[in-house]
Design goal:
single chain, alpha/beta, eleven-stranded mixed beta sheet, seven-stranded mixed beta sheet, about 40% helix, U3 small nucleolar RNA-associated protein 25 homolog, nucleus, UTP25, phosphoprotein
Length: about 675
């Protein structure tokens, strides 16, 4: 018996009610409008107290003057910082520093019109580590960007302290890789930072928590801190110049800031991610052991964003990738402002006094609010210069609408002035052109049409975009270790919007009748979309089919009961949602027939679900079946499962495809 079963059995055995007879209050929660409340109420997305940062949200108002950009001056910073700022004022460095080049460019109206109306021209290039890249831009073609084989940290135009601290901070990661000639970057970091440092948008869809997650986090934290320190140094330096300036002289040279102070928004899925980011910031700001930086509210932050190892249930065996994704505090409702000056960091800074905001999509959604709500605020997003969306694939498993809602409120003109000195505001912000200067860094574990849409429809950076577009040569089907015939059944849809209805009708008319016979018992139907799951569940009830169902909102007793009925054959069908599998990874025993109503979002879920058949008693393999529904619009998901060569053949042919996996990989 699985460890999770043993924990649930005691709770479930006491009640013998049919899983189909769960009270109607759960049925009433199926609409999209009610899903966010449902998520919070049932705790499907969080293992922590959802009140963190919501009911009693703490904001540090004590250190306002200490971290104010308006009232501090350059001489309060270190000598290194002074020297760095003096260097940046020379004409040579002015022309080479990517930060200065990007933020000081004065766009013309005709260029803005081009970005808004014309389609992008694109070119392909292959890099040693990133692979196939697509460079796209609306404006005239930029010079070809080639990766550096080795990087001299002094040529990267890093803010002075970072030149010293970065190699030390990254040393531990480098030492874990046996072969690396670069003393500062891994091959992946080097190529990613090469793109980030040009201020182009970047989409990297091969970020996994298990392999390269920390590499990427370190790289974008370096870029973030480099940008913020340079921007603040410029403001502080100009403060000193203005103070020494003769009265009555107006000077446009001091336009050095946006309409609001926040410059970087970092969107991450869990509190643990925010904790790791802040720890990296602290290490990057500490030049040596003698010079520790002052971090306000550090203890509170550790308490609210850290985790207690004792809270984790013992003996739960899960795949390595699951353990990596759900490590630490996985509460998904949070937001925190961070203010940085050279010697100090202020956590829990009010947003309008913050340089960096770290938040989850849900944390952003609850402060942005909806139209008509009295208490809502999104002015702090008006002058964001770098937007980082990390682990975007996880938001598909949470609530993608929160991400879309956030993107719609990025870089809008603020409704209030918030005490800004308009004589210091850059013209690009006054012209409402900040979205054309915003750099977006998007990291995901997979390519998905919804994630691609964010990159293609919500990013307007005049510097252009770079997307990694590698196609999987070998699909996850190669990791199936049971002897199993795989039948891929193609459905024909007129267009993308009709696929949902076409799939349902195809399933009801062509697929389900083949499984109604009692001989086809123990059939698991894997459903990626929650709304498809609700539709199927309602249809099964209407047809009075013998089935049980498990979704991400099913309670423990219901889960255990459904699994037991299915294993014993007391229920012929089991409807299972993808998000349940994502969050729980339970082994479902007793599967003899498997139907993928749609290809899984994560390709490795295909082999994981197929391999669950190993848990079934031996001798049954002769009757095992696996059926997959797909259309021509599923090309990306199909390639991730069967590989690019088979995908090309399957999309050209309109016949059903039969594959047989021998299990030799076991």
């Amino acid at each position: 018996m699985d460890s999770e079963e043993s924990q649930e059995t005691g709770e479930a055995e006491g009640g013998e009610e049919d899983e189909n007879d769960i009270p109607d209050k759960e049925e009433a929660k199926d609409t999209a409008e009610q899903m966010p409340e449902e998520e919070q109420a049932n705790g499907a997305y969080t293992s922590c107290d959802p009140s963190h940062g919501v009911i009693e949200e703490f904001t540090d108002v004590k250190h306002e003057s200490e971290f104010s950009l308006e009232t501090n001056f350059m001489e309060e910073e270190s000598e290194d910082c002074n020297a760095d700022e003096r260097k940046s004022s020379t004409s040579q460095v002015f022309s080479e520093d990517p930060f200065k080049q990007h933020m000081d460019k004065e766009m013309e109206e005709k260029e803005v019109e081009k970005i808004s109306t014309l389609s992008k021209s694109s070119s392909q290039m292959k890099w040693p580590r990133l692979g196939q890249l697509t460079f796209s831009s609306t404006l005239e073609k930029h010079k070809t960007l080639k990766p550096d084989k080795e990087v001299d940290v002094k040529q990267l135009h890093l803010h002075k302290p970072l030149e010293v601290t970065w190699p030390k901070v990254n040393k531990q990661l480098l030492s874990s890789l046996n072969k690396t000639s670069d003393p500062c970057f891994t091959p992946l970091q080097r190529e990613l930072f090469c793109i980030m440092n040009t201020y182009r948008d970047l989409f990297y869809p091969e970020r996994t928590a298990l392999t390269n997650g920390e590499e990427i986090r370190l790289a974008y934290c370096l870029h973030t801190l480099n940008h913020v320190l340079k921007a603040n140094a410029q403001v502080l330096s100009n403060n000193a110049k203005r103070r020494d300036q003769k009265p009555g002289i107006d000077n446009d040279d001091y336009r050095d800031q946006g309409l609001t102070r926040p410059k970087v928004l970092m969107v991450v899925p869990f509190r643990e991610c925010a904790l790791r980011i802040v720890h990296i910031f602290i290490r990057l700001l500490e030049v040596n052991n003698e010079r520790k930086i002052d971090v306000s509210n550090k203890k509170r932050f550790k308490g609210e964003f850290g985790s207690n190892p004792e809270e984790k249930p013992p003996n739960l065996k899960r795949p390595e990738d699951y353990e990596a994704v759900f490590a630490g505090n996985i509460d998904d409702h949070f937001r925190i402002g961070v203010a940085i000056l050279q010697k100090s960091m202020r956590l829990y800074a009010p947003f309008y006094s913050s340089d960096i905001i770290i938040a989850s999509p849900l944390g952003m959604r609850t402060i942005i609010g909806a139209e008509g709500e009295k208490k809502r605020d999104f002015d702090f997003l008006s002058s964001i210069e770098i937007l980082i969306i990390d682990q975007a694939d996880i938001y598909l498993m949470q609530n993608w609408e929160h991400v879309l809602h956030l993107m719609k409120h990025m870089n809008l003109l603020p409704l209030d002035s918030h005490g800004v000195d308009f004589s210091r505001v850059r013209m690009l912000n006054l012209n409402n052109w900040s979205k054309y200067y915003r750099q977006t860094l998007l990291f995901s574990a997979l390519q998905d049409p919804q994630i691609n849409s964010i990159f293609n429809k919500h990013c307007f950076n005049y510097m252009g975009q770079v997307a990694v577009r590698n196609i999987p040569q070998i699909g996850s089907i190669s990791h199936v270790v049971v002897q199993l015939p795989h039948v891929f059944r193609r459905l024909e849809a007129e267009n993308l919007t009709s696929v949902i209805d076409t799939r349902f009708q195809f399933f009801v008319d062509k697929v389900l009748p083949e499984y109604r016979d009692a001989i086809m018992s123990h059939t698991l139907i894997y459903v990626p979309s929650y709304f498809d799951y609700v539709r199927l569940r309602n249809y099964f009830k209407k047809e009075e089919l013998n089935f049980v169902h498990i979704c991400e909102y099913t309670k423990k007793a219901g889960i255990c009961r459904a699994r037991r009925f299915f294993l014993k054959g007391e229920r012929q069908f089991l409807l299972l949602t993808e998000r349940f599998h994502f969050y729980k990874r339970y082994t479902i025993k007793g599967i003899r027939n498997l139907i993928f109503y749609e290809l899984p979002t994560y390709s490795h879920f295909y082999s994981e679900i197929c391999n669950m058949m190993k848990a079934t008693a031996s001798g049954m393999d002769a009757t095992w079946t696996c059926t997959v529904l797909y259309s021509k619009y599923d090309a990306q998901k199909l390639a991730a499962v069967v590989g690019i060569d088979r995908t090309a053949q399957m999309l050209q042919s309109k016949k059903n495809v039969h594959l047989f996996i021998t299990g030799e990989n076991e």
